[in-house]
Design brief:
Helix content is 48%, strand content 8%. The chain is built from 14 helices and five strands.
């Protein structure tokens, strides 16, 4: 599906299925709303899928792998070679996300959407060999930004056809906290200082340099904050574009998509700016340790379940939500109702 076709397919959530899920929760033999956000998430998934018989047994993580030209400005501790090494480790199940995914019964699909070198990771959705240095001009063309988003849409469609019921978003790309901070600062009309953190461990001096580089990129490119594609093309990354496409594709295909941390949240921000209805199809997992993460969640009106000071990326936070969702869904499907145990049902007190 093209980006335009995808956006046209996105509809509001199925209120009838959500109401049915709410009524079932209220019939379960426990105090009303006592599982809090777990109940809300089950109801949300019912609305997303259009089916109160909630099922997320087959789940997958999509890890978008890409390189960022701005790395040549010295904004990271690591070189671009690390992107390719970690990307291949996804295939060997040797990344943190893969080990966590094995415990959560989730399959992992790494995608080379824009690494500077080819690896054993699939390249059929590759847009280019890394972005350009955004301090010298646009990171990518507008057409490339569209292709990146459509690569994510393609992945959502591919996994929908394979029977997956829920998707998690992840990424790998040295320098992507720099691009993410830049995109978030523009789309949310916030200062670069507020939206920029230390990434994978910069010193205080390194953080100040990173902030100046982002400011320079924004000044050079003058992205239009009213046009998310323009912002993405000028100061974003292919990994952000791909994850934005997964969020859009998930909404069009009625599959819940789980945000990971800061970079994934920025991709969700891009997707929601393209089509506000996408927001209801997105599930928040955790509050990243990156300083801007909670601001983005608030901007998107999302409440994350997990608060663990995680900031690893790869999709680790999104995967960590799966076992918690499983607990809520187990109660939703398995617990007796008040009627079955012959106890009077609780009523809402006003």
């Amino acid at each position: 599906m093209t980006l335009e076709e995808t956006i046209k397919k996105i509809e509001p959530l199925d209120k009838k299925s959500m109401k049915a899920a709410e009524m079932h929760w209220n019939r379960i033999a426990k105090p009303l709303h006592s599982l809090g956000k777990l109940e809300d998430l089950v109801v949300q998934i019912a609305g997303i899928t259009g089916n109160p018989d909630v099922n997320i047994e087959k789940r997958a993580l999509i890890a978008m792998c890409a390189d960022n030209g701005v790395v040549e400005e010295g904004v990271t501790q690591s070189g671009q070679e690390v992107t390719a090494i970690v990307a291949e480790n996804f295939l060997k199940s040797e990344t943190t996300a893969c080990i966590m995914a094995q415990q959560c019964r989730a399959d992992v699909y790494p995608v080379d959407i824009g690494m500077v070198t080819d690896t054993k990771v699939r390249t059929d959705l590759k847009v280019a060999y890394g972005t350009k240095n955004m301090t010298k001009g646009p990171a990518m063309t507008r057409d490339q930004a569209v292709k990146g988003v459509e690569a994510g849409i393609s992945m959502a469609l591919e996994l929908k056809e394979k029977g997956y019921k829920i998707l998690a978003t992840g990424e790998m790309g040295i320098g992507n906290t720099t691009t993410s901070s830049a995109v978030a600062a523009v789309l949310m009309n916030q200062s670069v200082e507020k939206m920029t953190g230390r990434g994978a461990g910069l010193t205080s001096e390194g953080l100040l340099h990173k902030i100046e580089i982002i400011k320079k990129a924004i000044k050079v490119n003058a992205p239009d904050k009213e046009d998310a594609l323009d912002v993405l093309a000028k100061i974003g990354g292919f990994d952000i574009a791909g994850m934005a496409g997964v969020f859009l594709g998930g909404a069009a295909l009625k599959i819940p998509v789980v945000m990971d941390g800061f970079i994934s949240c920025v991709a969700a921000l891009v997707a929601v700016n393209m089509c506000p209805d996408v927001s209801d199809y997105i599930i928040a997992s955790h509050v990243s340790k990156e300083p801007a993460a909670h601001m983005i969640l608030e901007y998107l009106h999302k409440k994350a379940l997990l608060h663990g000071d995680m900031c690893l990326g790869e999709g680790t936070g999104a995967i960590a939500l799966f076992p918690v969702l499983d607990l809520g869904i187990a109660v939703y499907h398995s617990m007796s109702t008040f009627e079955e145990i012959h106890v009077e049902q609780y009523e809402e007190l006003k």
